[in-house]
Design brief:
The radius of gyration is 41 Å and the shape is elongated. The strands form two sheets. A two-stranded antiparallel ribbon has the order 1-4. It has a two-stranded parallel sheet with strand order 2-3. The protein contains 31 helices and four strands. Helix content is 68%, strand content 2%. By secondary structure, it is mostly helical. It starts with 5 loop residues before the first helix and ends with a helix. 35% of the residues are buried. The protein folds into six domains: 89 residues; 120 residues, no CATH class; 148 residues, no CATH class; 73 residues, no CATH class; 63 residues, no CATH class; 112 residues, no CATH class.
């Protein structure tokens, strides 16, 4: 009969035989570790010895010691957990390059200070990470960084590794060969993370979390520039660097050519303290998103001209030399300001403010550049006054007299006429000042076009009265709308009693038509287009459509009769065209008017409008060509105001 324990003795003997077959260095490591484990738990030590033969095929002697030490620390907290750890083995670590395995044990051992569950979760997660990151060098760098972070903060090292798959995905998407890792990209990123971990410790996990969004949409060169410049920003602290990544990526996505100029402004801002520095960085994405929608001088099709942006940033930098808070205020207000003034005027406003407020308090300067004071707004208004009508009034009168052969009065307005404005037929109304362009020459050309339109309304008889064409239009429209109303009413009541109380007989169809003829009116004496517009069911709507059609008629006749005007008319057309909104940004009830305006006065519908409303655009073009543009080539009778009606 066998004694109790014989089976165990036999098992231990077998285990000893297994260990004897290992290489000397690995056998020595296994014996040392098993002895140390026996001091914690004999069962755990036995489980380790059982697992060693398989583990030794994968791990080096040093790795065996590290693996055993990790398990020993787990067992010190919970023997059952330690046994499970060794029973699990290390087969999953085959996905991890041999050069990286020591970092696996180091980071997990460090995390045991925080929690055994966190450490074991990391131990199981790293093989998955290795399966996603196929580049062994990059994986080794990440695990090495995780150890550096764990030496400062075990908790953040776990977060760091959890963010690594997204970082790897973002970096592999950059470069000439998506899906692979370009060492020229990963090198600066690892250097940044390493410096970040050395300076801030656990905040490296926050850096790792920021990187995927920061690199999204960036090209190879932009990603490298952002990483290298971010490393330089570390001298101002981890928080500044994190904000820099977000802000810098927005700059690079907008226009990479101004990135260095933007960084130069930061150098002027930085000495004033991190509070202002971070506030400027946080304001950057909003500034560039707003400035992208502003058509700076030289911009085409909504693009941003690099030279103009460089100039804006240079001006902000000039303010920062004197006062960083004022520079921040100007930076925040600049996008809105540049919607209404030119760059020259913006520069004049800044230089005036710096000169006038040189000896004033910081608060006064900040309020000026934030446009919070009356002085600041008045100064800005003065810079954007442009070309005044008073200074060119006499020249415009002579121009119109030479153009039309008649004297015409020109009077100022408090604001520029609307796109579909119609005057009174006696006076040409022009804006008090024009500041749409950056030179007086261009503003004067715009004045010439507006004056020509006003003269055209007079010369081409927009305000003609009692003409044969007007009478015909009046009769046709009166017949159309009055008959329609009567016929609808007759359709509803014919054959029934019209007045129940009176018992009157309903009218017959012939009687209805006769009644319509009786009610039909002729054009009242001394009437112009306004009398015809009142026939429409919605006169205000009709007036809006008519004025656009009439301006298109005038434009065509000016081009036909005064060929020397075409360049200036083309200038106006280009000015209107470049300021048209994207058709989907127009409220749906205004889309028909926008399409009509583009077709009649902007040289044609925009590409997006034609794409989404192709059939409507085609039908409007047919109507316009049939009535107001039919003789633009100089043949046939010119269209009259009745055609616009």
């Amino acid at each position: 009969m066998a004694e109790p324990g014989d089976e165990n003795k036999q098992t231990l003997t077998d285990l000893a035989k297994h260990l004897s077959r290992l290489p000397a260095d690995k056998r020595r490591a296994a014996v040392e570790v098993s002895a140390a484990l026996a001091g914690v738990s004999l069962r755990v030590s036995r489980d380790f010895v059982e697992a060693v033969p398989k583990a030794a095929k994968l791990l080096s002697a040093d790795d065996l010691r590290a693996w055993g030490e990790l398990g020993r620390r787990v067992a010190m907290g919970n023997a059952d957990l330690g046994s499970s750890f060794f029973e699990q083995g290390v087969a999953e670590l085959s996905a991890v390059p041999s050069a990286s395995r020591r970092y696996v044990f180091q980071v997990c051992t460090r995390q045991l200070v925080l929690s055994s569950s966190v450490a074991l979760e990391t131990f199981n997660f790293i093989p998955e990470l290795a399966g996603e990151i196929k580049d062994p060098d990059f994986l080794t760098s990440i695990l090495s960084l995780a150890v550096d972070v764990a030496n400062r903060s075990a908790k953040h090292s776990a977060d760091f590794l959890k963010h690594s798959p997204e970082v790897a995905k973002a970096l592999s998407a950059i470069g000439d060969d998506p899906g692979t890792f370009d060492k020229e990209i990963t090198g600066p990123v690892i250097a940044l993370a390493s410096a970040f971990a050395a300076r801030t410790g656990g905040m490296a996990a926050d850096l790792w979390a920021h990187l995927p969004e920061a690199f999204d949409g960036l090209g190879r060169e932009a990603a490298i520039r952002l990483s290298e410049q971010a490393s330089k920003m570390l001298e101002h602290g981890g928080s500044v660097t994190l904000h820099f990544l977000t802000a810098g990526s927005s700059v690079l996505r907008t226009d990479a050519n101004v990135f260095d100029d933007w960084c130069e402004v930061l150098k002027q801002i930085a000495p004033q303290g991190n509070a202002i520095h971070i506030a400027f960085l946080r304001a950057t994405p909003k500034f560039f998103s707003q400035i992208a929608a502003v058509r700076l001088e030289g911009a085409d099709d909504g693009s941003i001209k690099t030279a103009a942006l460089k100039r804006v940033l240079r001006l902000i930098g000039e303010i920062a030399v004197t006062d960083a808070e004022s520079a921040l205020a100007a930076f925040r207000s600049s996008a809105g300001t540049l919607r209404s003034v030119s760059l020259d005027q913006f520069e004049e406003w800044i230089e005036t403010g710096l000169a006038q407020l040189k000896d004033e308090s910081v608060k006064a300067r900040r309020s000026y550049f934030a446009l919070e004071t009356r002085q600041s707004n008045d100064q800005l208004q003065q810079t954007r006054s442009g070309l005044h009508l008073e200074s060119v009034l006499h020249v415009l009168r002579l121009y119109i007299e030479a153009l039309t052969g008649r004297e015409v009065e020109i009077a100022p307005q408090s604001a520029m006429p609307q796109e579909s404005r119609i005057g009174d037929g006696k006076t040409i109304y022009l804006p008090n000042a024009i500041a749409e362009y950056d030179t007086e020459e261009m503003d004067f050309r715009l004045y010439k076009v507006l004056a020509a339109y006003g003269a055209g309304q007079i010369e081409f008889e927009t305000f003609a009265k009692d003409t044969t064409e007007l009478k015909a239009a009046f009769a046709d429209l009166a017949d159309l709308y009055s008959a329609t109303a009567e016929q609808i009413d007759a359709f509803s009541l014919a054959g029934y009693i019209d007045e129940v109380q009176k018992g009157e007989r309903a009218l017959t169809d012939e009687e209805i038509r006769e009644e319509i003829r009786k009610r039909r009116k002729t054009l009242p004496k001394d009437s112009d287009y306004r009398a015809v517009l009142n026939l429409f069911p919605e006169p205000r709507l009709a007036r809006k459509v008519f004025t656009t059609m009439e301006n298109a008629r005038i434009d065509g006749l000016l081009r036909r009769n005064y060929r020397g005007l075409r360049k200036d008319l083309d200038l106006m057309q280009a000015f209107l065209q470049k300021n048209r909104p994207f058709i989907f940004d127009v409220p749906y009830h205004q889309v028909p008017f926008e399409l009509l305006f583009q077709i009649t006065l902007c040289g044609g519908a925009t590409d997006d409008a034609r794409s989404f409303y192709g059939q409507i655009v085609s039908e409007i073009e047919t109507v316009v060509e049939s009535y107001v543009r039919r003789t633009h080539d100089g043949d046939g009778d010119p269209p009259t105001v009745a055609d616009s009606l």
